[in-house]
Hints:
Elements: H1 2-10, H2 12-22, H3 25-37, H4 42-66, H5 71-77, H6 80-92, H7 94-99, H8 107-116, H9 121-145, H10 147-157, H11 161-202
Helix pairs in contact: 2-3, 2-4, 3-4, 3-9, 4-8, 4-9, 6-8
Amino acid sequence: MYEILGLIDRFGVAIVFAGTFFEGEVFAIIGGFLAYRGTQTFQLMIGLAFVGSFCGDLAVFLFARYFSNHRWVQRWIRRPKFAKALKLVDRFHAYFVIVNRYIYGLRMPGLIALGLSSITIPRFLVLNFIGAGLWASIFTTIGYVFGYSISSVFAQLEAVEHIAIYVLGGLAVLLTLYVGWRQFSPMWFKSRKETDTKALVGHVGPTRQSGSNETDN
């Protein structure tokens, strides 16, 4: 437990920023928890969550707008959730910029749909600013208020920490072996097949079984 908390305390700033840039609520709550522990200031954690969320959403929005033919964007467009996000964008338009963060599973397709919509970049910037500010304040505060409960969860994890480490280590080894087998077994079988083929091609004349005798009439 103490190792986990030590890592969170040490790299908390980077974790909160990167986490809110790429994902969301959990990392903003971690920021509030760090503020509860006194490792970082509450204002700094809200600021990091705000900047991470604002920049992350803006990056996806701009990428979808200017690189709509990119295969990554097209892959999201073909997913079923994109159709739902597009309907919400068409119906609520600008308001969707603010509420999109709170709809589980729709953040990424929602941002891509916004990038492909007719909303202007200045309007998106203003609404994204408001949405990121509200979102960061809410979830960082949740992490701060429920900091004691989160600490209790870490205390309960201490009892199974060593077992979890061994289990995760075993899974990592099995996963490594599986990936290695998937990567290199086709090459090994192919090499065996090519060797056998060359051996057959290099043989001249009919094959004879050992111990067989020919009789002349």
